[in-house]
Amino acid sequence: MQPVEQRDEVEMLSLMLLIRRFEERASQQYQAQKIGGFCHLYIGQEAVVTGAIAAVRDDDYIITAYRDHAHALARGTSADACMAELFGKETGCSRGLGGSMHFFDRKNHMYGGHAIVAAHVPLAVGMAFAIKYRAEDRVTLCFFGDGAINQGAFHEALNLAALYKLPIVFICENNLFAMGTSVKRSTSLRQIVDRAEGYDIPGEIIDGMNFREVRDKVAEIVDSIRKEPHPAFLEMRTYRYRGHSMSDPASYRTKQELEKYRLDDPITRLRAQLTREGKLTNEQFDLLDRRAKETVLAAVKFAEKSPQPPLDTLYDYTYADGAMEPGSPMPAEPAQERRESALSPNTNSP
Ligand SMILES: Cc1ncc(C[n+]2csc(CCOP(=O)(O)OP(=O)(O)O)c2C)c(N)n1
Ligand SMILES: [Mg+2]
Hints:
Rossmann fold, about 45% helix, alpha/beta, 13 helices, binds magnesium ion, disordered N terminus, two-stranded antiparallel ribbon, binds thiamine diphosphate
């Protein structure tokens, strides 16, 4: 395996703590009715996004579904901007107009936050196509749930990504349930990763509760994609400790099942690994945790005192600035040769 340029693991543990404490506090603020609309928590799944982000560059593209708080925080969106978005405030990462399911941070290349199951997977393929078209060496990471894999859009997207050999990693966050439906009841596959094989996309199953395994595998794949663009598929076996959304009593699973996965907590695991290796003391861990809690409390204060978006911005930002007005001339065509090589399926040339 290629040696991995590793981000500091203690720093990544503290990021996982920030994500965990952020969502615990968001849950509390939701119950206090400071947050409205839908709200889906990622608690239990932190090693997936943290491990994946630790393995890519800051200019790589990230896109995900509606369980998106962790993806934004891991990408570097501030806890202030994330909490303010949950509160529907103007200082939020989507100007308070998106809410929990629509976090967006263009500067950090986090392209949502999408509520419709699997609808963002074709968008991700478009982003990967743009990378190849512009002859860049970026990679797109597309996160989605196990519930996305039976949607038509998902299949169309995988087919194109394979035909055009696009630089994209499909990351299935298999937390075993889509709302209250077990993956065993919804999917006629022995294992989800088999979906990729049908499209001739290399795939692997990863222990999504293990930060190091996630990071090392994503790093290895991203490295090979940068050398020669191609799609890849990772099935991350993970588990969400909370219900599907805030109103879900999660009666479709047993207490024993939940307890089994709680014993495998990704934060506890990385902490234990670092402690065993003499890289982290209990006092240091407590300090990291205290800091995470303080950051989140400060974010709540920031969100509370931030203004609501002005009413007259309600219809703003629906289309990008500079979007074409009806009747305006088409943009200049790219050079013929470049267009042809990008558009020709089964070619590795950019
Ligand atoms: C096209 C579509 N159908 C149904 C829904 C309602 N819905 C919201 S979340 C969800 C389950 C998706 O589960 P999964 O993809 O496994 O993601 P997870 O919630 O487990 O992260 C469904 C069916 C939707 N948002 N979009
Ligand atoms: Mg799921």
